[in-house]
Amino acid sequence: MLIPVSLISTFLGVALFGICLGLIDLSRATPDRIPWAVVVQAMNACLWGLIFIPVFWLLFPLSLANHTLIRHLTLRTQAEQDGGGQPATRPESK
Questions:
Q1: Is 66 domain-assigned?
Q2: Which residues contact 14 (CB under 8 A, 6 or more apart)?
Q3: Residue 35 and residue 52: Cα distance in Å, rounded?
Q4: Cystine design at 18: which of 2, 30, 43, 45 (Cβ 3.0–4.6 Å)?
Q5: Do 47 and 23 touch, CB atoms closer than 8 A?
Q6: What is the pLDDT at residue 54?
Q7: Per residue in 50-94, pLDDT tens?
Q8: What pLDDT is stored for residue 51 in this prediction?
Q9: Helix residue spans in the chain (DSSP H)
Q10: 26 contact partners, CB below 8 Å, separation of at least 6
């Protein structure tokens, strides 16, 4: 389940990055442009770059590592909370 989630989140992140680039490009005062096409073109360019440029394929294992780390930390935090969340105390010696 972690691999599909990391792939989808990588594509969504790159698509959002492309939308931001398109909005920045749209803010320039260039006449005779279709506003929605500028944004979609930038998003498509980023997604095509992710798919067809091998250097960017490194984003997939990085995303998987990130999701694995988040899962590990989440499970560890849940285990600590299920254990009562109280720090262990030493018994007093007499």
A1: no
A2: 46, 47, 50, 59
A3: 26
A4: 43
A5: no
A6: 93
A7: 999 999 999 999 999 999 999 999 999 998 888 755 555 556 665
A8: 95
A9: 2-26, 35-52, 59-82
A10: 33, 35, 38, 39
Domain span at 35: 2-60
Residues 47, 15 contacting (CB under 8 angstroms): yes
CA distances from 66 to 16, 70, 79 (A): 18, 6, 20
Beta carbons of 3 and 64 less than 8 angstroms apart? yes
Q: Does residue 91 lie within any of the structural domains?
A: no
* pLDDT score, position 29: 83
Residues whose CB is less than 8 angstroms from the CB of residue 44 and which lie 6 or more positions away in sequence, other chains included: 18
From the list 48, 55, 67, the residue with the least C-alpha distance to 7 is: 67
Let me know if residue 44 belongs to a domain: yes
Count: domains in the chain: 1
For 5-41, the pLDDT digits (tens) are: 999 999 999 999 999 999 999 999 889 999 999 999 9
Q: Which amino acid is at 44?
A: N
